[in-house]
Write a structure and sequence with these properties.
Elements lengths: L1 H24 L4 H5 L6 H19 L2 H14 L5 H27 L4 H4 L2 H20 L1 H4 L5 H7 L10 H14 L8 H35 L1 H18 L13 H27 L2 H16 L8
Helix pairs in contact: 1-12, 1-13, 3-10, 3-13, 5-7, 5-11, 7-11, 10-14, 11-12, 11-13, 11-14, 12-13, 13-14
């Protein structure tokens, strides 16, 4: 079962990427869709991914990484991992279907500026509240140690597990270069954007994709297949969500092109976040990295009444 699942988790993303590559390479408008909000994906996604992975690999020793992997195994021991993964995938489907549906319903009665708030609400509900209640907290009765994994991810006492701040700073610095020249709004708008980005996007998604999905897939199929699969799900979800995304323009040319644009952007970002998670098992690093990068990218487009 483990070997079969490992091959499936490797092959599905690889086959999809290979099938999409010819059409994307022949598409003259590809680069224009990869660049959105005036941000250059070379600096906001690809270079940060390379730098973050290389630095994290260089800083963390194999012994430290293996020790943390063993602790994850202990935290998830006796959990019904297959059942939990199925529940998580069900919640992900509910999210990608529910957000556009609720937005459409609200859009019939409210201005467009109001109904887009449906997406953060549905995201928090399906990617955070229900997974925590059904997958993490529900294990208390049957396992007796359901809080071991959240404690491992959030109570970070070892100094070396904060060494990931260096890759975070380098990645954020590269994003700053990527958005250079883009006019930023007032400090109040930036602060508001950061609050929404961290609370409504970063925290629920990083806990869901990395803390829950990737961690369980690692126990079932291994480290890199889990990173690949979680990153692929991350990209697919954003492609299916159509205009409800934050980094690149996925709103044209049909689902295949949206997926083709999402894989080299959201997928690559997912690999960076997944690798950092597998090295440090520190959810705060992921929140800081993703939240700050995302704030820098989307803040120039935010307009609020101050």
């Amino acid at each position: 079962m483990t070997t079969t699942l490992r091959w499936v988790l490797w092959l599905v993303p690889a086959v999809c990427a290979a099938a999409l590559a010819p059409a994307l390479l022949a598409d003259p408008a590809l680069l224009s869709r990869l660049s959105w909000h005036g941000a250059d994906p070379l600096w906001t996604v690809w270079l940060p991914a390379v730098a973050g992975i290389v630095l994290s690999w260089a800083i963390v020793t194999r012994r430290q990484r293996d020790e943390m992997a063993d602790r994850v195994g202990e935290a998830l021991a006796n959990h019904p991992l297959g059942t939990e993964v199925r529940w998580l995938l069900f919640f992900l489907v509910c999210f990608v279907a529910g957000a556009p549906a609720l937005s459409h319903l609200l859009g019939a009665a409210f201005p467009p500026e109001a109904y887009v708030t449906a997406v953060p609400v549905v995201r928090v509900f399906f990617l955070f509240v229900l997974p925590v209640l059904v997958v993490d907290r529900a294990g208390i009765n049957s396992v007796g140690a359901a809080m071991a994994m959240p404690a491992l991810a959030m109570r970070v006492g070892e100094p070396w597990r904060w060494g990931g701040l260096l890759p975070v700073v380098v990645c954020v610095g590269l994003v700053v270069v990527g958005v250079r020249g883009t006019p930023m709004p007032s400090p109040g708008t930036v602060a508001f954007t950061m609050l929404v980005t961290f609370v409504a996007i970063t925290v629920p998604e990083e806990i869901f994709y990395r803390g829950m999905v990737q961690s369980r897939l690692e126990r079932l199929a291994g480290r890199w297949p889990a990173i690949a699969a979680a990153s692929f799900l991350f990209a697919v979800a954003h492609a299916v969500m159509d205009p409800y995304n934050e980094i690149v323009d996925l709103s044209s040319d049909g689902p295949l092109h949206r997926l083709g644009v999402a894989i080299p952007t959201y997928g690559v970002l997912g690999v960076l976040l997944g690798y950092v998670w597998s090295q440090y098992r520190n959810i705060w690093l992921l929140v800081l990295l993703r939240g700050t990068m995302l704030t820098l990218i989307i803040a120039p487009t935010v307009r609020i009444v101050e």
